[in-house]
Specification:
Elements: H1 2-31, H2 47-70, H3 75-87, H4 89-93, H5 104-116
Helix pairs in contact: 1-2, 2-3
Length: 123
């Protein structure tokens, strides 16, 4: 019984961690909606806009690293991550993305999304 309770509490805490990380990312996204645009890399952006976008996608990537670490088996969380990665596919195809900084799970997801190109942004 104690193991079951511990296991349930552990799952609740993990999901709470994933929710908190994603909530912070959503707040940043709502405060900076221009960073959410998947076509930003195709626009004539200023160096400051490019820098902001770089950090935005890195924060998003770290958020989904936390999601994969905390709730890797929850399909809804994985689907959210995959959609966001697909929206910003151009970033992951560029020189600013360093796959060595991320987990095998994250890298595999990025590679699969690039190959499948579900939203048509990975050209």
């Amino acid at each position: 019984m104690a193991f079951w309770q511990f296991n349930q509490q552990w799952r609740i805490e993990n999901e709470r961690g994933a929710r908190a990380a994603y909530r912070e990312f959503l707040i940043i996204s709502m405060n900076n909606p221009e960073m959410s645009r998947p076509d930003l890399l195709e626009q004539d952006a200023t160096p400051i806009e490019n820098e902001r976008y770089f950090w935005y996608v890195n924060l998003m990537s770290q958020t989904f690293e936390e999601v994969f670490a905390h709730v890797p088996e929850v399909d809804a969380w994985v689907a959210i991550a995959e959609i966001q990665i697909a929206f910003h596919c151009g970033f992951y195809l560029g020189d600013d993305y360093d796959p060595s900084l991320y987990s095998a799970r994250f890298r595999g997801t990025v590679d699969r999304i690039i190959d499948e190109d579900p939203l048509g942004f990975c050209h």
